[in-house]
Design goal:
Elements (H helix, E strand, L loop, with lengths): L29 E5 L14 E3 H6 L5 H7 L6 E4 L9 H11 L3 E3 L2 H8 L1 H12 L14 E7 L9 H10 L4 E7 L8 E7 L10 H13 L13 E6 L11 H13 L2 E6 L12 E4 L8 H11 L4 E2 L2 H7 L2 H10 L7 E4 L15 E4 L9 E4 L2 H11 L6 E5 L5 E8 L2 E9 L8 E3 L5 E3 L2 E4 L6 H12 L5 E9 L2 E9 L15 H18 L12 H6 L9 E3 L1
Parallel strand pairs: 1-2, 1-3, 3-4, 8-9, 8-10, 10-11
Antiparallel strand pairs: 5-6, 6-7, 12-15, 13-14, 13-15, 16-17, 16-21, 17-20, 18-19, 20-23, 21-22
Helix pairs in contact: 5-6, 5-8
Length: about 550
């Protein structure tokens, strides 16, 4: 594509000076600063293109006159140095320009934004929705880069993206890097970095000079000021997980919502453990387990006093179904009849079970280690297989329903409700195939006011036994009552599914919960808390129409 950036080249391989360079005609109050005079091949005889050393020492010819005028009107300075690293010539040019009252592009704050990954992450999410015109890129191409000059680019389809990138990162010359995430349609902006005039290919001279001309003649508008975030949040995820609790589109939405709340959100992975303490809070969006790095992350965050979802205690309690069965029974919360079976006790159940029954490995997830037995012979075979993973196997009465209720609970209050339907011609909401593939039943989001009060009450009571975190309570309802199947830490939450009814309010409440904990710990003034709906009042009020409001295939 014509907009794809040229490969980076070494100093000796930079584009040579144009054979007939077009000189520039700057607006009278602009000054261009470059590291070496030769870096700006379009300068011609224009004396208002100066080197960084001249600018810093204020020794340029005629410059004293401009400095004398500075008290009447600030100069407009374009810093085109080779790099803006901390304490480099480029950095000092912007720093000193600000000290002198000049209007400098890029500002020191922009330079820091370009170098700080946590700040970049929140801003890049705003660019993703503006990516267009790439449908014809071959599927074999997974990365692209583009050069943007003062918010201008050749490809009209990418004009909005280029304009917005310059609005967010007020840097004259930028390179945007895009990536096609595995398994998803579309593209995502992965990084932005500054370029220098030597990166402008000769074939783009007209674009560059036109963009420069337009920029120097427009009315000055200062770069957007990015306030210091109220909290730096890390979201732990695994982009290669086939069944993640939140997909990449959902994580991108959380980043956007975070920005609107002055919360900086950065996606991290297992390899970023050493960086964890750089953040203020942790949100785990990766399937958790005790013998797993997710538990290590949770323990470290808790030890450092960081608010964390999911906390280590919740992971310990929720990931073991044997513990949950005992906890629910001891607290009088209805569940299917449950028994714990070991190798020594298998034979005792030959004549005591009403088939079919369901067998579960206590620390399984996503229905992976859940099997149904129709007779004692099948029961024995499944149990012996499961004993290779766990000394204890959970056995529950089989209770078929068309769907399971899922109630998301945050800090002891309901956050969302959904119906998870069984896979067609199957008895579970997820069907795993032998080749590693899986199928999921559809998800239907439900208004809190349309949810039976008994379902809400059971879910809230169950979740409060675990803690004040974020939980997904699974329940079945039939003619005999409501039964809690299990309580999940790290529950599913995806754009267009669980959030279909309440939209971004779910993400605002989750981020607000973590922010309130962070501010309470640090003694800062709490943000305005998002009100939790009084859902039990809604549930007992006159029912709203019961038509489905959201379906996920």
């Amino acid at each position: 594509m014509s907009s794809t950036a040229s490969p980076n080249t070494a100093d000796g391989d930079r584009p040579p000076p144009s054979s007939s360079p077009r000189s520039i005609d700057l607006a009278s109050d602009h000054l261009i600063v470059v590291e070496k005079a030769a870096d700006f091949r379009w300068a011609g005889g224009d004396s208002r293109v100066v080197t960084a050393e001249e600018f810093i020492s204020e020794r340029t010819e005629g410059h004293e006159v401009e400095r004398a005028l500075a008290s009447k009107r600030p100069r407009k300075v374009i810093n085109l140095c080779r790099n803006y690293d901390y304490l480099s010539l480029g950095y000092y040019c912007s720093l000193l320009a600000e000290a002198r009252g000049d209007r400098i592009t890029p500002s020191v704050e922009t330079i820091l934004d370009l170098q700080q990954r946590s700040t970049q992450q929140g801003l890049l999410a705003q660019l993703d929705r503006l990516i267009a015109g790439l449908d014809d890129v071959p599927k074999s191409v997974n990365t692209l880069s583009f050069h943007v000059f003062f918010g201008r680019i050749e490809d009209p389809a990418l004009a909005d993206l280029a304009r917005k990138s310059f609005e967010l990162f007020r840097c004259p010359l930028l390179e945007l890097e895009l990536e096609r995430p595995a398994g998803l349609n579309g593209w995502k902006t992965t990084s932005v970095k500054a370029l220098d005039p030597r990166d402008v290919d000769i074939s783009r001279d007209s674009l560059f000079l036109g963009a420069l001309d337009e920029f120097t003649r427009r009315r000055w508008s200062p770069a957007r000021v990015h306030s210091v975030p109220k909290m730096d949040l890390a979201i732990l995820h695994d982009p290669n997980d086939p069944l993640p609790p939140s997909n990449l589109a959902t994580l991108a939405r959380i980043v956007e919502v975070g920005e609107s709340m002055d919360v900086s959100v950065e996606l991290i992975r297992k390899k970023d453990f050493s960086r964890l303490t750089q953040f203020d809070a942790l949100f785990i969006r990766e399937t958790t387990a005790v013998a797993h790095h997710t538990f290590k992350f949770a323990k470290k965050a808790a030890a450092e006093g960081m608010p964390v979802i999911d906390d280590p205690g919740s992971i310990l309690r929720c990931t073991n179904k044997a513990f949950l069965a005992e906890l629910l029974r001891e607290n009088g919360i209805g569940t299917p009849r449950t028994r714990l079976v070991s190798r020594r006790t298998v034979a005792r159940f030959e004549d005591t079970l009403d088939y079919p029954v369901v067998l579960k490995v206590p620390d399984g997830s996503f229905s992976r280690d859940v099997k149904k037995a129709s007779d004692f012979k099948q029961f024995q075979g499944i149990a012996q297989s499961m004993f290779r993973e766990s000394e204890i196997v959970l056995v529950q009465d089989f209770m078929y329903t068309e769907f399971d209720w899922r109630v998301g609970v945050l800090d002891g209050e309901p956050l969302f409700v959904a119906r998870y339907f069984m896979v067609r011609d199957h008895w579970q909401i997820i069907k795993h195939a032998g080749d590693g593939q899986h199928a999921e039943g559809r998800t239907e989001a439900v208004r809190l006011g349309d949810t039976p009060p008994a379902v809400l009450q059971a879910a809230i009571a169950a979740a409060r036994l675990i803690g004040d975190g974020f939980y997904g309570v699974d329940l079945k309802q039939n003619a005999t009552g409501v039964f809690v199947i299990e309580i999940n830490d790290n529950p599913n939450l995806d754009v267009g599914a669980e959030d279909k009814v309440t939209g971004d309010e779910i993400y605002r409440k989750l981020l607000g919960h973590l922010l309130a904990k962070f501010e309470a710990r640090n003694g800062t003034a709490p943000s305005e808390p998002a009100a939790i709906d009084n859902v039990l009042m809604l549930a007992t009020a006159a029912p709203a129409p019961s038509d489905p409001v959201a379906l996920r295939a």
